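ZP: hey, is the beta-D-fructofuranose complex queued? I don't see it on the tracker
AM: it wasn't, my bad. submitting now with these inputs:
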Amino acid sequence: MNLRVLAMLVLTISVMRGEEDILIADFESATWGDWQVSGTAFGAAPATGALPGQMSVSGFQGRGLVNSFAGGDESTGELISPPFRIERSHVVFLIGGGADLSQVGVELLIGETVVRRATGAEAEDLAGEIWDVAELQQQVARIRIYDQASGGWGHINADHFVQTDQPPERFDLTARLVQYRQSASYMNERFRPQFHFSPELNWMNDPNGLVFHDGEYHLFHQYNPAGNTWGHMSWGHAVSKDLLHWEHLPLAIPESGGVMAFSGCCVVDARNSSGFGSTENPPMVAIYTGHGHGRQVQNLAWSTDRGRTWNLWEGNPVLDLNNPDFRDPKVFWHEQSQKWVMLVSLAAERVLVFYSSTNLKQWTELSRFGPAGSIHKPNWECPDLFELPVEGRSGETRWVLEADMGAGAIAGGSGGEYFVGEFDGTEFRASQRAQWVDFGRDFYAPVSWSNLPPQQKRQVWLGWFNNWETCLVPTSPWRSCMSVPRTLALRSVRFNGEEPEQLVLVQQPIEELKQLRKSTLTPDVSDAGWPPRAVTSAGELGGYEFELEATLKPGQGRSLGFRIRSGENEYTEIGFDRWQNAVYVDRTRSGVVDFHPSFAGRHLAPARLIHSCIQLRVLIDRSTVEVFINEGEAVISDRIFPTGNDPVLEVFCGGEGAQIVDLRLHRLQPIWKR
Ligand code: FRU
């Protein structure tokens, strides 16, 4: 919630109604005033932001705040307000910092009895907390802010305690959205993708709960309703009728009671096995990780109004191993065994646990898979499991198990890997070594749509178009976008003489994407050579959102391909490297690269020559590049932040015999209504 705006709104409204808010404390003066302080954690006076050694602190109001990081996380202490009479229905304030209620937090005391309690959510960004104190009116109370913790997140931030009769709605973005929707830059900032999904405001990460229901594709996502960095994770929501155009909807499942709504999935319970709906109106059931108070558990929420409102099940959690790294459930209906199957990650162990259920509420462990995979580092997250056809082998299928690692992936930082094998309803057995899902740096936590109409005969997923290591990309007032939805299949491929052939995951943009093509150019590139030669400008192309399809025929030289968004010593290069037998995206000089030391770089994907040629399909959308090689048998997904404008596209061919055999450029129209 943007509490500043809301606090102002509340103030205005209450002044209008003549029931003024009562300020308890705003910590704007240079001393603690009549608050009692003990220990060292709170320092000699209110802080004015981050303290030495602390990450940046935001979301407080005015200049001063309470921050118990004085002396770092080790220090402890306590701060107690003078007594005050409760004269309004609510006490509202801002809170951030650690999440372990037993050690850090804010309490409301009547005498010596604790009547309300709150804690942070392991974020330095303060967010609004609301206590309903109607039943306590006229009693004398005190506020106690305590820090007895000395480990990680062993501190608490707080600010601006107010008594009010008009509490703001928690995480209400209405005021900011109204303003943003009227602004000239609405969904049109220079790095804002035009045909990829992104949130209107604030931070987003993993796609969650992708499901088709009643004519709508749902795209829930990890979302921070309170800011433009990770925190207060809640489920954001958007729907589409065509998988192209998205409508942003209000928050679906908010963080509450210090428990964040982490990643998970959503199923349509057609048989009403859960009893949350009826067979006439089957419930949508979200199964997601509750993260808070030192552990991760699996929770249920359900909706019987097409995902517009959500109810948390009072029997939550459905799974609790008392484990701090147990997350990201994926549930599907297993037809042969007539039961629900869930896989969840014991992230730190790189183990996936399989469970089954007949009602989504009681789960029995079936088996485990892992540790496995390419990198022996912790963190497996956001698993998915589905059955795919093998291209060209009629009726033949295999199961694909996908998992994402927080660090150590092929292009550096976070990324996904997958196993091809068999799943019998109980156990998954891999029949091949792990392979990389994407060879770029920016494709994470992909999950597939559940409940697609059977006549579509396809599996579709999309991923978070980002990398945890370099996720603080230079955009505002939003951060992050999703990849385009991709159709999945398996293909038997032998990369560059490798033995034996492997089944590889083939990803292609969904067929629907072609509907966005508004015109096609077929420039003459027969004389491409070295140095790179301009093909088109933004003016001719109508913008920075386009798609190119090309056939490259390597010659004697090392490389051939394209440069996009060129400027003074600036370009992103996409090409085939004959020495490395690979397609590459080189974003070393792609524009704004200095926001993180690992951002600039060159990313390689294995590529085979088919009839001496490489086929490329490249989607470029202001700050995104997706390269689909040889009809999707390898993909490179990379973000770029170009400042160069002209030319938008150049071609080059190195050496005798090299040729760009054909090139088609499609202008794509934006999906956002402005
Ligand atoms: C993956 C992840 C998940 C977790 C979510 C929290 O990107 O770390 O494991 O559920 O993000 O936002």
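AM: back. Residues 205-206, 222, 233, 262-263, 289, 327-328, 381-382, 445 surround beta-D-fructofuranose (CB under 6 Å).
ZP: great, adding it to the tracker
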